[in-house]
Specification:
- The chain has 200 residues and is of the alpha/beta class.
- It has one domain.
- 36% of the residues lie in helices and 21% in strands.
- The protein has 9 helices and 8 strands.
- The chain has an 8-stranded mixed sheet.
- A hairpin with a 3-residue loop joins β7 and β8.
- It starts with a strand and ends with a strand.
Length: 200
């Protein structure tokens, strides 16, 4: 069975909920979602509609990223963000993120890491610690950017942390999985910001 949806709402929400069965919410990457916003989505969506949330940039991206232009944190708070570092600032952010996710029954989450997030010992350690600490929250989908992430590195991390690899197969080939019993789906990214989910 295929589920096809977009990254964000390219058309009106009313029309989108009639024509598609899944969406990757992009707003959660840039800013903290508010309760009214997610409850509005949930009220419009069919009961079987699936929300996939993109993880906050405050977890994956350092404050030097240009995406922080839309950030809703103070300059002081930003110093603690990015690189999967866990501290009181990022722990509070992820707590609210999962709270909003529960309000739309989201159980899958996309973590997109930028090209400047390299596979250093520190980066890999932080990433593994983060996903192990929050593994009960749902299914984590990881989209590493950059040529430094060799397939064997991605595969080892996905296996150890229980991640699904997301990728644009037209640019980088098929996703890397590993022997993970929790996997019941495959997520790939096709051109034009279309999200395709293949569910067994």
């Amino acid at each position: 069975m295929f589920k096809i949806g977009c990254c964000g709402f390219p058309i009106s929400q009313d029309r989108y909920f009639k024509e598609f069965s899944v969406i990757e919410i992009q707003q959660s990457f840039y800013r903290t979602l508010n309760e009214k916003q997610v409850k509005n989505w949930k009220s419009k969506a069919p009961d079987d509609f699936e929300f996939i949330l993109k993880a906050p940039q405050y977890i994956t991206h350092l404050p030097t990223s240009p995406t922080y232009r839309r950030a809703d944190l103070t300059e002081e708070e930003r110093k603690f963000c990015g690189g999967f570092r866990l501290n009181p600032v990022t722990e509070k952010i992820i707590e609210v993120f999962f709270l909003r996710a529960a309000e739309v029954n989201a159980k899958k989450f996309v973590f997109q890491t930028p090209a400047f997030f390299k596979p250093t010992d520190e980066s890999i350690k932080n990433l593994l610690t983060f996903f192990k600490d929050y593994k009960e929250k749902g299914i984590f989908i990881w989209e590493p950017r950059g040529r430094d992430w060799a397939p064997e590195i991605i595969k080892d991390i996905c296996k150890e942390a229980g991640l699904i690899h997301a990728v644009d197969p037209f640019l980088h080939g098929p996703p890397v999985f590993g022997d993970l019993p929790i996997l019941d789906s495959m997520v790939i990214y096709a051109p034009i910001n279309i999200l395709i989910q293949i569910v067994n």
